[in-house]
Request: fold
Amino acid sequence: MEAAVSLSVRDRGHPRATGCFLALLLCLISFWFQPGALAQTAAEPAAQPAAQPAAPTGGGAYIEFRVGQIGTYGHSYAVYGTVGGKPNYADLHPMGGYAVMALGHLLPVPANTQWDPGVLALPVMSRYRKTLTGEQYRKLLAAVQSAKANKAPYWNAMTNNCNHFIGQLAAAIGLRVPGEFQVSYSFVPALKALNEGGRETPTRAGQKRRAQPPPQS
Reply:
């Protein structure tokens, strides 16, 4: 997850604007090196081909949206598969460590959809599980495959973070998706409330993403 910071860089060529930009970047970097944060982005694991799970012939499929506890904002990811089978995991995260993540609050930075097992060490703060039909599961697999087929994924705290990623998976199976421009700790509960009843939450179509408070991963 990540916190988003809105900054205009129209005048970054001006010496004063450049100084402000560097000062803000240093603040963001120092913010992320806080106690308790998982240093999972320090080095990316070697790429390994992932076997695509088979679509079920009859029910028994599921997806579970989770929020892992890390830093101030949390990290959203998805677990999916068939009941009794091996679980599969999917998420989006920036590559290159906290310095790159800090820069990703201002500019798009390289990202990875390869699963990092270290995420499972994060305490799960909230979860939303849905049973899927065979057709929904096939659509989910197609969405995951499409995301992982992108040879140059990017991460940006405001426009393409971990909430956007799992939001795309939720939309693929027909769920309503709340605004992704919020911290992960609130995004998954909002996704559940929007689809299972409860408090009313603004949907993606009903809000202006860029005019909102900062998000997360």
